[in-house]
Design goal:
Helices cover 68% and strands 0% of the residues. It has helices spanning 5-26, 48-59, 64-78, 80-88, 99-126, 131-144, 154-181, 185-215, 217-230, 250-260, 265-278, 289-311. The longest helix has 31 residues, at 185-215.
C-alpha cells in the first residue's frame, strides 16, 4: 500500500498545536509525579532491612504464573529505548521542523521510564527472580527490536499505540488485583499506578488519532483496516531467554497471562470494539469506496474474532522459566 508521506506530515503538523495543548492533560508534571522511591524501601531509614524482609515475605504467596507475567511485563517496560527510537523515526516526527512531536515522544518516554525502574527494583528485592537471566532477556529484547507492521507511517503508529497502551493498562491493572488477592498490597499499589499512567497514554493516542480521522478519514480508515488485518502484536513478541531463538519465550509468557486472565483473546476483541466506538467509526462520513470497504471490514471484525476466541483453549502450565527461582 502506497503511503502519501507528504500529506501525513501536513496532518501531523496540523494537529501539533492541539497535541501540545493537551500534554498537561495526558502527562503529569514531573515534580508532582510519583517516583519509584515512593514505593520501595528507603535505604536511608534504619528500618531498611526490616522493610526488605517484609517485602520478601509479602511476595512469597505470588503464584508461579503471576511472577512469570510480572517478569514479562517488566522486561517489556524496560525495552523502552526501542519504543522511543521507533517513535522518533515516524514520518512527521523525525524532522527538526516538527519538534513539537519530539517533545511529546520525549515526555511520554520520561513518564514510561519509571515503570520498568520500579518493577525491576521490586523483583530484585523480592528474591523470587533470577535477576541475571531476566537481565539477559531484557538485553536480548532491546537488541532484537521488534517488527509491528507500522513502518514509519504515523497513522499506523498511532493506531498501534492506542491499542497497545490499552492492552498494557489491562495487564497491569489485573496484576494489581491478583497481587492484592495474594496479600501483596505493595505490588498491587505499584501496578495500580502504572496502570493509571497507561490509561492516560492510551487516551492520548486515541485522541490524536481521532483528530487524524477528522482531517484525513479515508487514509486513516485504510490504515486502521491494514493494522487490523495484520493483527496487533505486542512489543515483547521477540521475547526470549538465554539459549533460545527470537520469540521462543513470548508464547509461554502469553500462556501464563491467559491462564491468569491477565490478558486474553477476549481482551483483544474488547479493545477492538472500544476503538471502533471511541473513534465513532460507523458514523464517519465522506469516505470514498476504499474507505467504505475498510470500514465494513473493521466493523465486522470483532464478532469474527470473538468466535475465534471461543475456540481457544486455556493452555496448561508446562513450562519452567529460567527467570524464576521458585
Amino acid at each position: 500500500m502506497n503511503i502519501n508521506v507528504g500529506s501525513r506530515k501536513e496532518v501531523l503538523k496540523h494537529i501539533e498545536k492541539y497535541m501540545l495543548k493537551m500534554i498537561p492533560t495526558y502527562l503529569k508534571p514531573i515534580d508532582e509525579n510519583w517516583q519509584p522511591s515512593d514505593f520501595l524501601p528507603d535505604s536511608n531509614r534504619e528500618t531498611f532491612l526490616q522493610d526488605i524482609k517484609q517485602l520478601r515475605e509479602n511476595s512469597k504467596d505470588l503464584s508461579y504464573d503471576l511472577v512469570a507475567v510480572l517478569v514479562g511485563d517488566t522486561i517489556t517496560e524496560e525495552a523502552l529505548p526501542t519504543y522511543e527510537s521507533w517513535l522518533m523515526m515516524v514520518d512527521g516526527v523525525e524532522k527538526e521542523e516538527y519538534g513539537g512531536w519530539k517533545t511529546w515522544v520525549r515526555q511520554w518516554t520520561a513518564e514510561e521510564n519509571r515503570h520498568g525502574d520500579l518493577l525491576n527494583k521490586y523483583l530484585y528485592l523480592s528474591g523470587r527472580v533470577n535477576m541475571r537471566q531476566m537481565e539477559i532477556s531484557t538485553q536480548y529484547l532491546i537488541a532484537d527490536g521488534f517488527t509491528i507492521g507500522t513502518g514509519n507511517d504515523p497513522y499506523r503508529n498511532f493506531i498501534y499505540t492506542s491499542f497497545q497502551e490499552r492492552a498494557t493498562n489491562i495487564s497491569h491493572r489485573r496484576v494489581a488485583t491478583l497481587a492484592k488477592n495474594s496479600g501483596d498490597n505493595l505490588l498491587s499499589k505499584m501496578c495500580g499506578v502504572i496502570a493509571a499512567d497507561e490509561a492516560r497514554h492510551a487516551k492520548a493516542y486515541k485522541d490524536f488519532f481521532s483528530k487524524i480521522l477528522e482531517v484525513d478519514p479515508n487514509e486513516a480508515m485504510i490504515a486502521f483496516e491494514d493494522m487490523m488485518r495484520k493483527k496487533i502484536v505486542m512489543p515483547a513478541h521477540f521475547l526470549r531467554e538465554m539459549g533460545l531463538k527470537i520469540g521462543q519465550t513470548f508464547g509461554h509468557f502469553t500462556d501464563a497471562a491467559q491462564r491468569l486472565g491477565v490478558y486474553t483473546s477476549y481482551d483483544y476483541v474488547d479493545i477492538m470494539r472500544e476503538l471502533i466506538l471511541d473513534w465513532n467509526i460507523e458514523q464517519i462520513s465522506g469516505l470514498n469506496e476504499l474507505g467504505e470497504k475498510a470500514r465494513d471490514y473493521i466493523v465486522a471484525l470483532p464478532d469474527r474474532f470473538a468466535k475465534v476466541a471461543d475456540r481457544i483453549k486455556t493452555p496448561s502450565l508446562e513450562y519452567k522459566f529460567s527467570w524464576i527461582n521458585y
